[in-house]
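Hey, I was hoping to borrow your eyes for a little while. I've been staring at a protein lately and its backbone has me curious. You're getting the sequence in one-letter code plus the fold written as tokens. Would you mind checking whether the tokens look sensible for this chain? Here's the protein in full, and shout if anything looks odd to you:
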Amino acid sequence: MTRRGFILPAVAVSALLLAGCAPAPEQDARPSGTAAPDYCARMVTNSGGLEDRSFNQSSWEGLQQAAADYDIGVDAIVSTSETDLAPNVEQAVATDCDFILTVGYELADATAAAATANPELHFSIVDEQVAGENIKPIVFDTAQAAFLAGYLAAGVSRTGIVATFGGGNQPPVTLFMDGFVDGVAKYNELRGTAVRVLGWDKATQDGVFTGDFEDTVKGKTTTERFLDQGADVIMPVAGQVGEGAAAAILEHGDSSLIWVDNDGYESLPAQFRPILLTSVLKNTQDAVVEIIGADLKGDFSNEPYVGTLKNGGVEIAPFHDRAALVGAELAAGIDELRAAIVAGILEVTSPNTPG
């Protein structure tokens, strides 16, 4: 994923009309005038949809970039409910494409079943580890980047209270939350402060969850409760639900938002830019391009791709409009922590660390 804004071209918008087993419109992102490619890739979203401002969107960006780089055909099949998932994977397989990309833990079973039934095809799944000779998981050690975000949150908090919540209690979600609370703890350790985190207890692996990744009303009400308790930096790990958190923070007028997966400064509506402190990034786009490039060369493997700070698979976004709030000293401290993590001097651990 790049840090540039992403705008769906008109041809890609048609993918949003896809649901269930409806015929998929062609969305080839090849340069005009080129011959139909021999290689094609299909993507199946989870129920968050293509414009989820999260990993579906970033994964689709990766496929589009691969289409431009390698002159291949790409298309997206959009799921709107859990009942769409397995049929949509079957539909992707039926296109006779070489590479099938699925997005999210909800597609794990359908991906495994399709890969077993079609050993000649290559599959990748984003944000979930699924075993199979022809399945390459794409996962990210987001705790490393979230650690930096937690340290940052503690450093800018005026109230000494920050918060995080998730869409569901699942490893790809709680991995962010583990890193976040550890980053706050590191700030307290180094600065002699006592910043508190609401919404997540790493020791018990329990906290606040909205129960889904689409309902923005739940995100807003959850965030309002945190704001009422004094939290002034909040990190939702809940896909579109996080837009409700952004709305609550904007109305509150004196707090900050940390986005996840992609740079919210670019992907969220512009009205939220003033409240964006940073984003915890997963470089899904580049991972997808790299894996398809390897597949085209005949170098596909089922070894998981694990994004880290060291390989550029995870990172935090620029501070944008909040740079003055962060200041040079705090930014330098974050740079030192990043370097220590990359060098292996500082280890960020979680029960959910991918490997």
About this structure: The two ends are 21 Å apart (CA to CA). DSSP finds eleven helices and 14 strands in the chain. The domain at 142-281+319-343 is CATH 3.40.50.2300 (Rossmann fold). The chain has a mean pLDDT of 89.
